[in-house]
């Protein structure tokens, strides 16, 4: 891994790294915030999965999470949202498919299948790399926004024992039933909808083998709420399956990082508790 930049931040460090991903078969950049406590010993880590059009930079520059992470002694790792520089035809044609829109699935369809394997990348390859190379422990939590909120929910639901806690901001809760999800799943996974269900939080809830409580924040003025996000479907599935969910509707907040910045400390506190930090 190659260190691209380093910035002192709340007595810890924000760093960006480039590395070769075997899983994605391309070079990737990710960001990490290391709190001051990481100078002494490996610290627990929150994986943050971003939404459509994002890179490793949006969360680190806009969410304002570093101050609380430094107080808590929590590292934060931010991967990119798709493979980069792989030059597939049509990859850059739309904001909601292809580059910047990997949807945290392992593609099975051509030409995407060789590179678009963001599920394996964020769940397995990247954690193994950072745990081997950086002072972060295997005590993991996961959170994310929108497409990344979907990613965080499915990562936790599909991998019992892998994460101590999970949360999401304005997640795509039922991707098989919304235009963003349908477009992505059709393109990456093909037209057999049975394969789509494997990556849909609402459909995974009934069979979840670990009942990790879900913390979800959602703004009522979110421009994508009605058409794309469907938190009510997830809440209903949770109720039926007796899966603990805290769905908080916040009056007047939209889909932006202004919303995330307003509640990120509460999410970090939620994860810190599960990670044994407070
Ligand atoms: N059409 C919009 C939709 C994309 C969007 O809202 N992306 C959210 C995630 S789904 C985001 O985090 N954008 C980047 C940012 O706000 O920094 C755009 O291209 O900005």
Radius of gyration: 17 Å
Q: What count of structural domains?
A: 1
The CATH homologous superfamily corresponds to Alpha/Beta hydrolase fold, catalytic domain
Could you spell the SSE succession in H and E letters? EEEEHHEHEHEHHHEHHEH
Uncertain segments of ≥5 residues (pLDDT<50)?
none
CATH fold assignment: Rossmann fold
Indicate the percent of residues in helices: 25-40%
Distinctive features:
23% strand; 278 residues; single chain; 10 helices; Rossmann fold; nine-stranded mixed β-sheet; binds glutathione; alpha/beta
Explain what this protein looks like in three dimensions:
- Its EC number is 3.1.2.12.
- GO terms for molecular function: carboxylic ester hydrolase activity; S-formylglutathione hydrolase activity.
- Belongs to the esterase D family.
- Serine hydrolase involved in the detoxification of formaldehyde.
- With 278 residues, the protein is an alpha/beta fold.
- Helices cover 34% and strands 23% of the residues.
- The protein contains 10 helices and 9 strands.
- Strands 1-2-3-5-4-6-7-8-9 form a 9-stranded mixed sheet, with helices on both faces.
- Strand 2 and strand 3 form a beta hairpin.
- The longest helix has 18 residues.
- The model has no long low-confidence stretch (mean pLDDT 98).
- Glutathione binds next to helix 1.
Task: Indicate the topology.
Layout lengths: L1 E8 L2 E10 L4 E9 L8 E7 L7 H6 L3 H7 L2 E4 L39 H16 L2 E9 L2 H12 L6 E5 L9 H11 L3 H5 L3 H4 L9 E6 L5 H5 L1 H11 L3 E6 L6 H18 L4
Parallel strand pairs: 4-5, 4-6, 6-7, 7-8, 8-9
Antiparallel strand pairs: 1-2, 2-3, 3-5
Bound molecules: glutathione.
Glutathione binds next to helix 1.
Organism: Marinobacter nanhaiticus D15-8W
Protein name: S-formylglutathione hydrolase
EC number: 3.1.2.12
């Amino acid at each position: 891994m190659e260190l691209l930049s380093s910035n002192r931040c709340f007595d810890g460090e924000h760093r960006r790294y480039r590395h070769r991903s075997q899983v994605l078969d391309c070079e990737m950049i990710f960001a990490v915030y290391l709190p001051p406590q990481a100078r002494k010993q490996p610290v627990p880590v929150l994986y943050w999965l971003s939404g459509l059009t994002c890179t490793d930079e949006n969360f680190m520059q806009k969410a304002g999470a570093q101050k609380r992470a430094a107080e808590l002694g929590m590292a934060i790792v931010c991967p990119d949202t798709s493979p980069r520089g792989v030059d597939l035809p049509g990859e850059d044609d739309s904001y909601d498919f292809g580059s910047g829109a990997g949807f945290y699935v392992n593609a099975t369809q051509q030409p995407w299948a060789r590179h678009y394997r963001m599920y394996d990348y964020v769940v397995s390859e990247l954690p193994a790399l950072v745990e081997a190379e950086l002072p972060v422990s295997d005590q993991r939590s996961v959170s994310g926004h929108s497409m990344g909120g979907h990613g965080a929910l499915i990562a936790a639901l599909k991998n019992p024992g892998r994460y101590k806690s999970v949360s999401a901001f304005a997640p795509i809760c039922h991707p098989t039933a919304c235009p963003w999800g349908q477009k992505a799943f059709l393109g990456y996974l093909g037209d057999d909808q049975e394969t789509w269900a494997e990556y849909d939080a609402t459909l995974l809830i009934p069979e979840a083998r670990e009942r990790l409580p879900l913390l979800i924040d959602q703004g009522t003025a979110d421009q994508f709420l009605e058409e794309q996000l469907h938190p009510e479907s997830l809440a209903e599935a949770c109720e039926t399956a007796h899966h603990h969910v805290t769905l908080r509707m916040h009056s007047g907040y939209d889909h932006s990082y202004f919303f995330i910045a307003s509640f990120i400390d509460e999410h970090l506190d939620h994860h810190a508790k599960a990670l044994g930090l407070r």
